[in-house]
């Protein structure tokens, strides 16, 4: 019976030692910042979801931003076309003014196209790009279609 008791006592010491080492390990992990490193992937995923997918205001703003940028491109194109029509019957002075306006509008259109394409390529905005809008706009095309 003494040997059984001694075996049980030895087993208790072994189990106690293993539990003690595990506790020391956990304390060490938290003390030296290891817990932050271990949980970083989970926290990062949660933060990303909360900051983008979870924010209805961000989602709505992103949708509207794509529509606004595409509309800005179309507005510039419409104004350019109207000025080109006006130029046909304009005086020389007015034609010069129209040419300057058209040049400025073309630059504005290219800026809008570049802004649209830049935002469409951003990973955090991609999920909120409306399916009816083109993925990218082409600055070389004269007429932009904002619906597919």
Give me a quick take on this structure.
The chain is mainly α and 148 residues long. The chain has helices at residues 2-31, 34-53, 56-87, 92-121.
Mean pLDDT: 81
The N- to C-terminal Cα distance equals 86 Å
Main beta sheet strand tally, sense and closure: none
Q: What general form does the structure show?
A: rod-shaped
Which class of secondary structure composition applies to the elements? mainly alpha
Number of helices: 4
Give the fraction of residues assigned to helices. Answer: over 70%
How would you spell out the order of helices and strands? HHHH
> In angstroms, what is the radius of gyration?
33 Å
Number of strands: 0
Strand content: under 5%
Residue windows where pLDDT falls under 50 for at least 5 positions: none
Written description of the protein model:
This protein is mostly helical. Helices cover about 75% and strands about 0% of the residues. It is built from 4 helices and no strands. It has helices spanning about 1-30, 35-55, 55-85, 90-120. The longest helix has about 30 residues, at about 55-85.
Essential attributes:
148 residues, 76% helix, mainly alpha
Topology record:
Blueprint: H1 2-31, H2 34-53, H3 56-87, H4 92-121
